[in-house]
Amino acid sequence: MAFWLVFSLVRKMFGLVLLVALAIGAWALWSNPGLFYAATDALGGLVGSP
After folding, report:
1. Which is it for the CA torsion 15, 28, 31, 42, positive or negative?
2. Tens-of-pLDDT digits for all 50 residues of the chain?
3. Backbone angles phi, psi at 34, to 5 degrees
4. From its phi and psi, is residue 47 left (phi > 0), alpha (psi between -120 and 50) or beta?
5. Given CB 3.0 to 4.6 Å as the disulfide criterion, which of 10, 12, 25, 40 pairs with 47?
């Protein structure tokens, strides 16, 4: 029972940390167009640079 509680809390914390990391990454790409174009070029040039 205690193991399940710990596992549940760790899983929930991991999900929150992942959500915060995605939000920070999206904000960084949104606020820095150079970084956005560098990232899209690394992914295969999905978006053309200006």
Report:
1. negative
2. 888 899 999 999 999 999 999 999 999 999 999 998 888 888 886 665 55
3. -65, -40
4. beta
5. 40
